[in-house]
Amino acid sequence: MQIPLPKHINENEVLYAINPKKDVDGFHPVNVGRLMIGDADYLPCTPAGIQQLLIRSGVTIDGAEVVVVGRSNIVGKPIANIFDAKK
To answer: Global pTM?
Structure first.
């Protein structure tokens, strides 16, 4: 699913229709909640890619202060939560 959706489509209905076990973007409320409590089966693809980019570039994340610009449900909030969980 590509967000944002056209205005005539109810985004919540579409999100709830996604099978949480097939939700690689982490949009389903079950997966959002699991990420928030640190119990995600897998990380949303874009934030996980950002994390891997930093790790593979040799950036030390542990103990670092991180600034996340933006708070979208797609990238900003999930990556902030991933970094917060590393404390």
So the answer is: 0.81
